[in-house]
Structures are given as C-alpha cells and as structure tokens.
Amino acid sequence: MKTNEGAANPIEAANPLQSQPQGGFKSVGDAFRSGIRDYNAGDKTGAVRALQYAAMQGHTVSLWKLGRMFAEGDGVDHDDLKAFEYFSQIADRYADESPGTRQAPFVSSAFVALGGYFLDGIAGSYVKADVSRAVDMFQYAASYYGDPDGQYALARLYLDGQGVPKDPRQAARWLKLAAEKGHRQAQALLGNLLVSGQGVPRQPGLGLMWLTLARDGSDADKDAWIAELHDKNFAAASEADRKQALSYLEQYIRKKQ
C-alpha cells in the first residue's frame, strides 16, 4: 500500500539528517538503543541522529519514533510532512506485518496517523485531504490489526457520515470493540449512544457504566468533554438507571480482575 506518491524523493525528505555523517554504531539495534538512551536523557539531537541511522536501515520502531517526534515537535521543529513520510515508510514496507508481532502495534499506529493526515491534508504540501484514503487507513488498522485508535477513528467517521454513509449502528460496533480494549474516548461515545438509543437498543444503565469508566480513566485536562458528557447523562438519569450502572460496573471490574 503506497502512501507517499507526489514526493520527489520521499525517503530523502523524511530523513533531514541523512547527509550528516552517520556512524559509531555497531548495529541497527545499537543505534536504536543509543537513540532511546539519548531521548530519555533529554538529548533529543543525539536521539534523532541515532534513530535516523536505524530508520535508514528500515528499523520500524525508529521510523515510528521519529514520526511521533516530528508530529509533536518533540525535540525537533514540528513538521507534519516529515512525520507523514516516516509513517508512510512504515506503511509501505510493513503493511503485511502479522498482527501479534512486536512490530505490529507500531505499524497499525502508523496507519492511524496516516489516516489523520489524509483526513485533513497537510497545508502547503502534496498531501491533500482525501477522505476515502483516510477511511482505508483507519479501516486497515481497525480490522486487520484490531487497533483501538483506528476503531475509534472509523467509528467517528460513521457517526458523522464522513467518507462513509452515516451509520450509528456501525459506529457503535467499532466503538464497542475499542471500548473493550480500554479506549476512553470510545467508551464515552459508546455510553452516550447507549443512553440515547442512537443506533443501538437503548440501555441507559449500561451506557452510564461506560461513561463512568471513561471519566475515571481519562485525562481531565485533555478530555474535559468526557466528564461533561458523563455529568450531563447522569444528571438526566433515573435512580434505577444509576443503580443498574453501578451493578454493571461491579460486574465489569470483577470480569477484568
């Protein structure tokens, strides 16, 4: 699955330090370990240099880590195009990686990241918004790898009717798969659908349970909307529904222990 058509030399573009002398590493693994040590020690420049050495040999985790660093501006200038091209290298080289391997989570994460870039495009670059390709990326991560972020992203598209027919039932199916894996945003949206009966049979007690799990496990600063959704639904719930939610929650916790 090719993802980076349009770049004159996508590998060169994705490796801005490749013109610098590389060396001092006994192996790809040694370069990766050195990069992670430097990163953890706060030496992001040293980390990038070592990780790029490993990435140029096709080391999956190094490619992924560099993609995340450029996507977040973590120790490097924020550059979505460079991030896109690192993730593209993973998708192009390792799309057939079997689920369950040590590399698989990084491959599936790369597909999810690419889906996000295709959804919105990257301003001033050859990466244009292409919702159908975004759907393909999320679908692959969600179905082949069972990636909860991919499942959540795909569910959001079905909820909004973006690139796919609007289908709350399909959205609920993908949300449940992600929610069962502990994905807090998916738990919150699934809970809200169950309380309202949108796309699924109305089950307010079960919906309140998912909303409680989402709220308790979420980052209050990053996901304030989850707490707001929880509080709104609980305020409107009957006492019987609240008691049922507590019973479901106790059963869920026992099952997970």
Automatic annotation (TrEMBL):
<dbReference type="InterPro" id="IPR006597">
    <property type="entry name" value="Sel1-like"/>
</dbReference>
<dbReference type="Pfam" id="PF08238">
    <property type="entry name" value="Sel1"/>
</dbReference>
<dbReference type="InterPro" id="IPR052945">
    <property type="entry name" value="Mitotic_Regulator"/>
</dbReference>
<protein>
    <recommendedName>
        <fullName>Exopolysaccharide biosynthesis protein</fullName>
    </recommendedName>
</protein>
<feature type="region of interest" description="Disordered">
    <location>
        <begin position="1"/>
        <end position="24"/>
    </location>
</feature>
<dbReference type="InterPro" id="IPR011990">
    <property type="entry name" value="TPR-like_helical_dom_sf"/>
</dbReference>
